[in-house]
Amino acid sequence: MDNWLQKIFGRKHATAISDASSDAEPLPSLYAYHQQFILEWLFKRMKLELQNSHTNEERSGEDLSLSPVQLTAEETAQLEYLASSLFNWLGKNDDVYLKLRQLKLGPVYMDLMLAVYEDVREYTYLFADKTQKETAATESAQEVWHVYRDVIYAATQQKFKLIQAEEIGPYRQGTLILEVPIQERSDIPRARELAKERLLLTGQPLSRVMNKLLLISEAITNILKHASEGTLSIVQTPEDIHVFVADNGPGFELKLLPYTILMEGYSTKNSLGQGFTLMLKMADQLLLATSDQGSTLILIFHEEGATH
C-alpha cells in the first residue's frame, strides 16, 4: 500500500497520507450522511419560511445568508425539533397532517410546516430509514418466494413444494433409522450401502428399496458437486419414509428453479440436472428448503397400504 502511494504522490506525501489513514476515525455510513443532509435542508427551508414571515416578504429560494433577520435561540431550537419530526414522520410514512394537528402549533409554525411538507411530499422515498427499506425489501422477496412456491406446486400437481427452513421440523418426527455425514467421495458408496441396509430392515421389498437408492444416490452425489459437506438422514413414520439430503452450499437460485424442476435435462452449476425430473417421477413428494446458507431436500415415499 505504501509503495503504491509513493508512486502516485511521492514518498513525503505518501507517508503523510498513510499516517493520517491509520489514525483517522471510521467514516460515518453513507446513510448517516444522507440523513444529515436531508435534516439540514429541512431546517434551512423552515428557517427561510420563518424569516419571510418576520419580514412579510416573499423571498422563496433566496440565499439565507442575505437575510437580515436573525433567529433567536428559541426559534432555532424549535425549527430543529420540527425538522427532525418531519423527517421521522416521512420516514415512517405517517399522516403528516394528523401529526401537525396533534402538535397544536401556532399559525406561523403551522404555515411553514405545511409549506415545507408540500415541497417534499413527492419525494418521501428519500426519507425512508435503512431499517424500513430493508424490511420492505424482505417483504418483497417473501412475496416473490410465495409466488414461485405456489406456481411450482401447481405445475407439478402438488408433488414439489418449496418450504422455509422452519417448516422442516415436523417432517423429522418419527424414527431416525439413518444419519450419515457426506464429506468426501468415499462417503457416498458407504452412505448408499447403509441406506440400503436400513431400508431393507423396514421390511420393504428389494425392488422398492432399489428405487429409493437410485434417488438417494443422485441427491448425495450432488452434495459434493455444489457444497463442501452435507448429511443424509432417513426417518420412518407409520405412513412414510422421509429422506433428508442437506448441504451447506450456496442454494438454488429462485428464478431458475422452474426450469430446473420442470424442464427435463435442464442443468446449471447449482442445479441437480436430471435429478429433479427423476425424483418427480419416482418419489411421492419432494420438499425443498434453500437459501444462501444451504439446502435441505426431502424425498417422501408413501408406504404401501397407507391412506393419503
UniProtKB/TrEMBL annotation:
GO MF term (any one): ATP binding
InterPro entries this protein is in?
Answer: HATPase_C_sf, HATPase_dom
Q: Which residues form the Histidine kinase/HSP90-like ATPase domain?
A: 215-285
State whether keyword Flavoprotein applies: no
Please provide the record's keywords in A-Z order.
ATP-binding, Nucleotide-binding
Q: What is this protein called?
A: ATP-binding protein
This chain's source organism reads Paenibacillus barcinonensis
